[in-house]
């Protein structure tokens, strides 16, 4: 990483501002979970109610003194605010409190830095960190007003701050170019899947809703899953076979959170494109969370921000094992299309209903036909078998192959179109 970050376990004073002027306030319970996920040790929790934020410190002078006393009494190394702080507010608070100050965005960035496993994930986090830190470079430096001097250092008169900013800009440019390369590679992979007619399904949802647990259960994968925020950062793709539909690619993606920093959305653009390009979104919801309705709205807001709000979606109400008298089931709309599946990914109850609902949702124009293929069309027969849509076959008296298929009509028409054939040319008989 370009910037050093703490390794967790620090004594932290938590400050939860409740500003009357804020229309959409942060959740104190979620704040504590974020701090716990970061590995800090909270030793005091202060709630501050205020009409308007103080432009210099965010909080008033009385509360600032209270925070200072808590820091001194517990010898805290860190003060974390459950609110966005401007660079000047952060610097002023650090000067007054004589310890490191972190806002909500910085806290989420640190968790992301700890969770990133792949090279791509680490690059994305570092880019977001650099963009966030670029306005906070003055922190910690005592020599910024001095220009370089001495043997070998005389010349353009560049201050240390200017040097740091130049190096930082160069690093941001380098990472952006590397991520652009990753993005192109992902795009090539998606195009290859489209050519192979393999539909993609992206798992989305609020952080800690159980996406990875459900993903692991369906794919027998070993994606890291834990009861903590942002357990998954790096996207994982797995291919599974869905009855009546054939092979599909499932994508497990990063969890969303309210007020997800825009810098993170920008940095994770390559990852989030797996969501934007999906044929179906499976929106996983922790139904045991009292704020589940708010969480749904936050996820939908992020989907709108990345341009994925118009995609077909299927809701999954997960963790029904934590509710009383709720059984696995599928809810349908007036057109008979599945809209919601109730299940428990932890226990595996209802997962078969999800697979069935996916097949119904994506195969709403499913066709079942017996088609006649001549010996010269053996390549087309092989393609039907590759897609896993052949239910049975037989040979007629003329030596033609009668193939009974079941597949989405869109895929059927596309396959015949590539072969230069029209559906009626195969002498199809509908069952």
From TrEMBL:
<dbReference type="InterPro" id="IPR032305">
    <property type="entry name" value="GTP-bd_M"/>
</dbReference>
<dbReference type="GO" id="GO:0043022">
    <property type="term" value="F:ribosome binding"/>
</dbReference>
<keyword id="KW-0342">GTP-binding</keyword>
<dbReference type="GO" id="GO:0005737">
    <property type="term" value="C:cytoplasm"/>
</dbReference>
<dbReference type="GO" id="GO:0003924">
    <property type="term" value="F:GTPase activity"/>
</dbReference>
<keyword id="KW-0547">Nucleotide-binding</keyword>
<dbReference type="InterPro" id="IPR030394">
    <property type="entry name" value="G_HFLX_dom"/>
</dbReference>
<dbReference type="InterPro" id="IPR016496">
    <property type="entry name" value="GTPase_HflX"/>
</dbReference>
<dbReference type="InterPro" id="IPR042108">
    <property type="entry name" value="GTPase_HflX_N_sf"/>
</dbReference>
<comment type="similarity">
    <text>Belongs to the TRAFAC class OBG-HflX-like GTPase superfamily. HflX GTPase family.</text>
</comment>
<feature type="domain" description="Hflx-type G">
    <location>
        <begin position="199"/>
        <end position="366"/>
    </location>
</feature>
<dbReference type="GO" id="GO:0046872">
    <property type="term" value="F:metal ion binding"/>
</dbReference>
<feature type="binding site">
    <location>
        <position position="232"/>
    </location>
    <ligand>
        <name>Mg(2+)</name>
    </ligand>
</feature>
<feature type="binding site">
    <location>
        <begin position="252"/>
        <end position="255"/>
    </location>
    <ligand>
        <name>GTP</name>
    </ligand>
</feature>
<comment type="function">
    <text>GTPase that associates with the 50S ribosomal subunit and may have a role during protein synthesis or ribosome biogenesis.</text>
</comment>
<keyword id="KW-0479">Metal-binding</keyword>
<dbReference type="InterPro" id="IPR035647">
    <property type="entry name" value="EFG_III/V"/>
</dbReference>
<comment type="subunit">
    <text>Monomer. Associates with the 50S ribosomal subunit.</text>
</comment>
<dbReference type="Pfam" id="PF01926">
    <property type="entry name" value="MMR_HSR1"/>
</dbReference>
<keyword id="KW-0460">Magnesium</keyword>
<dbReference type="GO" id="GO:0097216">
    <property type="term" value="F:guanosine tetraphosphate binding"/>
</dbReference>
<feature type="binding site">
    <location>
        <begin position="344"/>
        <end position="346"/>
    </location>
    <ligand>
        <name>GTP</name>
    </ligand>
</feature>
<dbReference type="InterPro" id="IPR025121">
    <property type="entry name" value="GTPase_HflX_N"/>
</dbReference>
<feature type="binding site">
    <location>
        <begin position="205"/>
        <end position="212"/>
    </location>
    <ligand>
        <name>GTP</name>
    </ligand>
</feature>
<dbReference type="InterPro" id="IPR027417">
    <property type="entry name" value="P-loop_NTPase"/>
</dbReference>
<dbReference type="GO" id="GO:0005525">
    <property type="term" value="F:GTP binding"/>
</dbReference>
<dbReference type="InterPro" id="IPR006073">
    <property type="entry name" value="GTP-bd"/>
</dbReference>
<protein>
    <recommendedName>
        <fullName>GTPase HflX</fullName>
    </recommendedName>
</protein>
<feature type="binding site">
    <location>
        <begin position="230"/>
        <end position="234"/>
    </location>
    <ligand>
        <name>GTP</name>
    </ligand>
</feature>
<feature type="binding site">
    <location>
        <position position="212"/>
    </location>
    <ligand>
        <name>Mg(2+)</name>
    </ligand>
</feature>
<keyword id="KW-0963">Cytoplasm</keyword>
<dbReference type="Pfam" id="PF13167">
    <property type="entry name" value="GTP-bdg_N"/>
</dbReference>
<dbReference type="Pfam" id="PF16360">
    <property type="entry name" value="GTP-bdg_M"/>
</dbReference>
<feature type="binding site">
    <location>
        <begin position="318"/>
        <end position="321"/>
    </location>
    <ligand>
        <name>GTP</name>
    </ligand>
</feature>
């Amino acid at each position: 990483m370009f910037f050093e970050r703490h390794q967790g376990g620090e004594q932290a004073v938590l400050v939860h501002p409740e500003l009357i002027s804020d229309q959409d306030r942060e959740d104190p319970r979620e704040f504590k979970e974020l701090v716990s996920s970061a590995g800090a040790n909270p030793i005091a929790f202060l709630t501050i109610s205020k009409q308007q934020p103080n432009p210099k410190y965010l909080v008033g002078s009385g509360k600032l003194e209270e925070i200072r006393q808590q820091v001194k009494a517990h010898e805290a190394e860190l003060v974390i605010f459950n609110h966005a702080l401007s660079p000047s507010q952060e610097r002023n608070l650090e000067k007054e409190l004589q310890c490191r100050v972190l806002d909500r965005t910085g806290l989420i960035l640190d968790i992301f830095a700890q969770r990133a496993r792949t090279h791509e994930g680490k690059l994305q986090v570092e880019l977001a960190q650099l963009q966030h830190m670029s306005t906070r470079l003055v922190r910690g430096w005592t020599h910024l007003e001095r220009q370089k001097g001495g043997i070998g250092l005389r010349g353009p008169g560049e201050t240390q701050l200017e040097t740091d900013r130049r190096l930082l800009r160069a690093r941001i440019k380098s990472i952006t170019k590397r991520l652009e390369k990753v993005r192109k590679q992902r795009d090539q992979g998606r195009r290859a899947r489209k050519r192979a007619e393999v539909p993609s399904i992206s798992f989305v949802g609020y952080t800690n809703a159980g996406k990875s647990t459900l993903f692991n259960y369906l794919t027998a994968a070993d994606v890291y899953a834990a009861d903590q925020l942002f357990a998954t950062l790096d996207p994982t793709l797995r291919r599974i076979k869905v009855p009546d539909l054939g092979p599909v690619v499932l994508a497990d993606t990063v969890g969303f959170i309210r007020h997800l920093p825009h810098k993170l959305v920008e940095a994770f653009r390559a990852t989030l494109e797996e969501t934007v390009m999906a044929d179906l979104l499976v929106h996983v919801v922790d139904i045991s969370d009292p704020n589940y309705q708010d969480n749904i709205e936050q996820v939908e807001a992020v989907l709108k921000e990345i341009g994925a709000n118009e995609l077909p979606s299927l809701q999954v109400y997960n963790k029904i094992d934590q509710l009383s008298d709720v059984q696995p089931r599928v809810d349908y709309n007036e057109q008979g299309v599945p809209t919601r599946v109730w299940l428990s990914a932890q226990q595996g109850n209802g997962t078969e209903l999800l697979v069935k609902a996916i097949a119904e949702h994506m195969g709403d124009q499913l066709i079942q036909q017996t088609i006649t293929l001549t010996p010269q069309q053996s390549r087309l027969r092989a393609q039907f078998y590759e897609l896993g849509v052949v239910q049975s076959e037989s040979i007629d008296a003329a030596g033609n192959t009668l193939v009974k298929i079941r597949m989405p009509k869109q895929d059927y028409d596309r396959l015949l179109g590539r072969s230069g054939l029209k559906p009626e040319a195969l002498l199809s008989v509908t069952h």
